[in-house]
Sequence to fold (255 residues):
Amino acid sequence: GASVDIGRILRGEAPGPQQLQLAFKVEPHGGALTLPVSVLVTPPRLTLSAVGCDGAEVDFGLVPLGESREHIIRLENPTGAPASWVLLPASALADGGGRTISWGWSRGGCSAKARSELDRVVFRSRDAFAPLGLELSAHCGVLPPHSSEDVSVVFEPSEATPFRVQIAARVHHGEASMINCRAEVVRRAACVEGIEASTLDFGRCFITVAASGMFTLRNLTRLPTRFEIAPPVAEAMLAGRAQVQLEPSEGTLEP
Fold:
């Protein structure tokens, strides 16, 4: 007998195994034919890596308090489906913040509702990273299949403590991917050596005859440290009764 080829197209709307039943009616008086359908729907996922580092984590290294460091995180979509993503601190996901994200903006469109949802998502991400001293060049987006996007991460610490944070990429219909960030934040410091009782004592000297001495300024950190010695101000100097010269009065102390 004759036959017909029937094309099949299935679009999964939820991840995981799906079971369906297709029913065929054969006319006239042919009865019904039932065909079970099964499919495993794979969710999109992202991989996160650090550009210029070993890939496993973002290492800002030694960061002096008051300065900033920048690194690049690469988001890659190795799957065959578009991946809608939002970046958040992993702690925000643990607190349930990722489950309340509205994903309507990821379907595109220029409606006021879509723009409003996008603004809220960007604000939520930016607001979550700000207390950590992190500023990102992008907070959310949609990655086409088998594509990648680079996101700049700037770290500007507010306190001299070790920094350990996980950045998570929350994926719509998928699981979050994580990458570790670390830094050693230090405060530049120096000490004076070669004096007693915290006083630079020249002892006894004769009028108009210079008395010389030496003391050492030592860098206490693993960072080059700039120093500048302000001209001393005292009642005797203001009255023109004494002069003090220090050489060098400025420079950089190596680690």
